[in-house]
């Protein structure tokens, strides 16, 4: 039996969190769909090996954190020129190919600079198949913006007019969508909670953990001070191997510093990027990391004792981290805690962490596929 064809649009701009989560969802979708994955950010070597998975790369665009402007990571073309190239690629991909479903990651709740591109994609898909199901995939928390009510009303109208469903990848017992989106009740009939998305659908709880502390930065755009502070307490914990995963976007200055500190130091191992991050996490005694969605889900899925350091430029990471800390799932640290004495105390405390009895919904990817399959089946039967 031929699987229904699905188009998944993902544009990652600063780090790799959106991409990682999207691929985890696609891995589950592959069981029920032929997935065409449209990636708008740079190739960072992450993909899926599945006969029903087709990876398409648009000419990449990234965003400057300083002024939120888009730019060519190769430094050759203007954003406008790249958008034109991307449009041609999308037209070629879609052509007369009928899709049963389209999923846009984050948009219309973010990625507004790509509105023209995404709306054109949806319209083209509808031209070929007027019954195509269009949905949005969003994480648990939306980033706070100025003029939020006016912005939210625009988002609501886009969903009302163009979308059939909104898949919220959260467990509502911990975080509900309306906590960071005040107009959520307007979309109540289209909201579908899936549970959190983890990279692996199976929990990995290790009983015999190694004497290792894993310090990770996600994509590596921010977090230098966390890594450097962790290395300061290394001599006080000689029985532990310190492993640092700075991420693909780590600064050259940090890479140089890490290389110098690791030279002739058997207690420190630098691992630029871990493709099997969750597997490694399940084996270590403690995780010290930023508080991005994917890393937090890795922690929950492996039940690894953890200290998380929220990125404070917006409410997202701190809200998620504090909610999970309230449930006894992990411990939160801030810039004031990065002194050697304070950090060492928190590390020693968390090394003794006992996991609570709370069961958190972590099958968001599988549930997304199940919900979408059921919706399409109901359409077919009606």
From TrEMBL:
Domain Glycosyl transferase family 28 C-terminal: 225-353
Keyword annotations: Transferase
A GO term, aspect molecular function: hexosyltransferase activity
InterPro entries for the chain: Glyco_trans_28_C
Keyword Transferase belongs to the record: yes
Official protein name in the record: Glycosyl transferase
Organism: Bdellovibrio bacteriovorus str. Tiberius
């Amino acid at each position: 039996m031929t699987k229904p064809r699905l188009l998944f649009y993902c544009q990652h701009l600063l780090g790799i969190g959106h991409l990682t989560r999207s691929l985890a969802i696609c891995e589950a979708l592959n069981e029920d769909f032929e997935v065409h994955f449209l990636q708008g950010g740079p190739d960072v070597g992450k993909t899926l090996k599945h006969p029903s998975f087709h990876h398409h790369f648009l000419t990449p665009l990234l965003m400057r954190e300083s002024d939120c402007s888009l730019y060519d990571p190769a430094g050759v073309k203007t954003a406008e020129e790249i958008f034109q190239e991307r449009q041609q690629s999308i037209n070629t991909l879609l052509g007369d190919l009928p899709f049963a479903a389209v999923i846009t990651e984050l948009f219309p709740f973010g990625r507004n600079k790509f509105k023209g591109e995404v709306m054109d994609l949806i319209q083209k898909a509808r031209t070929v198949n007027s019954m195509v199901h269009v949905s949005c995939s969003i994480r648990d928390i939306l980033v706070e913006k100025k003029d939020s009510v006016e912005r939210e009303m625009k988002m609501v109208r886009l969903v009302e007019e163009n979308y059939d469903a909104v898949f919220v990848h959260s467990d509502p017992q911990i975080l509900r969508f309306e906590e960071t989106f005040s107009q959520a009740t307007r979309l109540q009939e289209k909201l579908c909670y899936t549970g959190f998305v983890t990279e692996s659908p199976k929990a990995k709880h290790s009983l015999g953990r190694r004497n290792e502390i894993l310090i990770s930065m996600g994509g590596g755009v921010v977090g230098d001070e966390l890594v450097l502070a962790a290395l300061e307490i290394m001599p006080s914990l000689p029985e532990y191997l310190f492993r640092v995963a700075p991420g693909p976007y780590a600064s050259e200055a940090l890479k140089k510093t890490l290389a110098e500190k690791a030279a002739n130091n058997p207690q420190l191992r630098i691992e630029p990027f871990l493709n099997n991050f969750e597997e490694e996490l399940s084996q270590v005694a403690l995780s010290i990391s930023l508080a991005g969605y994917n890393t937090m889900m890795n922690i929950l899925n492996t039940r690894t004792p953890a200290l998380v350091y929220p990125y404070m430029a917006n409410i997202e990471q701190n809200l998620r981290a504090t909610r999970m800390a309230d449930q006894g799932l992990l411990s939160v640290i801030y810039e004031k805690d990065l002194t050697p004495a304070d950090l060492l105390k928190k590390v020693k405390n968390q090394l003794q962490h006992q996991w609570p009895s709370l069961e958190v919904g972590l099958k968001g990817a599988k549930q997304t596929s199940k919900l979408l399959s059921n919706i399409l089946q109901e359409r077919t039967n009606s």
